Amino acid sequence: MTRTGLKVKCLVIALITLVVPMLCPGISTAIQAILTDDAYTSSDRPAGNFGNRGSLNIEHPTVVPFKTQGSYIKFSLIPPMLAGTVGDDVERAILKLFVGKVRRAGSFDVVRVTGAWTENAITDATAPSLGATEVSGVALTASDENAYVAVDLTALVKAWLDGLANNGVALVPNGLAGLSAQLDSKENMHTSHEPQLEIVMSAYVGPAGSIEATGPVGMTFRGAWVNSTPYVTDDVVTYGGETWIGIASSVGVTPGPALCLRRRLCVKESTTWVL
Questions:
Q1: Cα–Cα–Cα angle for 130, 135, 136, nearest 5°?
Q2: Alpha helices in the chain, H assignment, sequence order
Q3: For position 235, which CATH number holds?
Q4: 24 plus 117 within the same structural domain
Q5: Is the predicted pLDDT of residue 24 greater than 60, yes or no?
Q6: Does residue 209 sit within a domain?
Q7: What pLDDT is attached to residue 149?
Q8: With bands split at pLDDT 50, 70 and 90, how would you rate the model's confidence at 117?
Q9: Do 187 and 227 fall into the same domain?
Q10: Both 7 and 134 in a single domain?
Q11: Are residues 62 and 157 in contact, defined by beta-carbon separation less than 8 angstroms?
């Protein structure tokens, strides 16, 4: 994608993220973080860079040679989210990985990356430092091939938005489980299912409105008209089989006779009652 195309895509996503919750309060909005880098490293080629490969390999053999492979993924959060977005604005964040091939079943961990890296420069020898394990023991078997596996990264995404340096995550073999698997990268030209980070934003709650003066009282139905009863504006009475509304305060003013301009509109000669 060109830089111009990427900017336009980011702008559109940002506008949707801002406008939809405001127009539809109470509706959560899901957006896709922008995948900027993905690559794998391999211990048997410590100076090799695999950032342009179509797969993200995870491997820890159980027999010699012990060639260990791990993968690295990094997303941009702002954009597509607007500047000022914080962790509390996020309801859920799910990492989705498309499984291309599982040669040996096993599991992997999702680990926070604490050092800087880029897909075009990372190697096994220069791989960044790793921090806490966010998710441990994500299992993969042959039955997971050609499908997505989902990993909950809500806590980490919240932390990134609250100021923790976002260097992405690493997918590393879990212990000596013997996993050998390939996930799709963004360079994959066959199935083209790149890693995705789907972020569901919390429902938008608008600011409380101002409290204004109490509006005027509407019509009050007083039943049948009584000569001795005092009435005020907007009092409604029945008299002579008709219904009348007061347009002024009165006592003992009989509602009628009336001049009927049409069946649906009758006006009394005085200025006290209107039908």
A1: 90
A2: 3-23, 154-161
A3: 2.10.10.20
A4: yes
A5: no
A6: no
A7: 97
A8: very high
A9: no
A10: yes
A11: no
- Residue 211 inside a domain? The answer is no
Which tokens sit at 227? Answer: 């000569």
The answer to whether residue 8 scores a pLDDT higher than 70 is no
146 and 102 inside one domain:
yes
Residue 239 lies in a domain: yes
For the ranges 61-70, 123-132, 168-177, the lowest mean pLDDT is seen at: 61-70
Containing structural domain, residue 195 = 3-201
**Cα four-point dihedral sign 182, 185, 191, 197:** positive
Question: Structure tokens of 245?
Answer: 């509304």
Supply the pTM of this predicted model. 0.67
**Residues 241, 36: Cα–Cα separation, whole Å:** 79
The answer to whether residue 213 sits within a structural domain is no
Could you write out the DSSP letters of every residue in 52-109? TSSEEEEE--SSSS---EEEEEEEE-TTTSPTT--GGGEEEEEEEEEEEEEEE-EEEE
Do 28 and 91 contact (CB within 8 A), yes or no?
Answer: yes
| 112 phi and psi angles, rounded to 5 deg | -70, 135
Nearest to 33 by CA among 138, 122, 166: 166
Q: What is the pLDDT of residue 1?
A: 43
CA 17 to chain centre: 7
- Burial (Cβ within 10 Å: 0-12, 13-18, ≥19) of residue 152: middle
Domain count across the chain: 2
Residue 257 binned pLDDT confidence (cut-offs 50, 70, 90): low
Q: How do beta strands 180-184 and 90-104 pair? A: antiparallel
How confident is the prediction for the chain on average, in pLDDT?
A: 84
Do 194 and 232 belong together in one domain?
no
